[in-house]
User: What shape does this take?
Amino acid sequence: MEFLLRVVNLGLLDVMLQQPPTPPVEATPAPVPVELTIGDWESERGGIEARVLRRPDLHDALVPSFDDSVLLLTDQKDPLLRYLVIDGEIQFVVDGEEMPQWQRLLDGIDGQRTLGELLAAAECQLSDVEEVLFQSAEFGLLTLSGPATGE
Assistant: This one.
């Protein structure tokens, strides 16, 4: 029995050598954490989020683009479904019935148009998609860069 376990372990080790895990995501350098004294969580929530989450300032001149590892796929059988594929694996499903503004905004992202142009084309306000836009940038699905200069 012990011999069989060793053979199985060697087989597992061989598989692990053939398919090493993906390296951890390289984190951006962050400032040294500081202590925050919180009196009332709800009333101070905005200030806490601003200090802790380090979210970018969203404005109409930003140009959203998909990361090189991300693909947006459309379901031919259900035109309201979108699949966000990361490194060849479906990671997120966007349902146009639940989040129509977000789906329309994603459809318009081409790496050229500004956020203001995309919002106008999607017929929505920034407040409609702000949270998912932040999350997508935070997870590395989207990059939010300044407008291209030197036209």
Remarks:
- The helical segments are 2-18, 45-52, 100-108, 115-122, 126-138.
- Residues 60 and 116 are 4 Å apart (CA to CA).
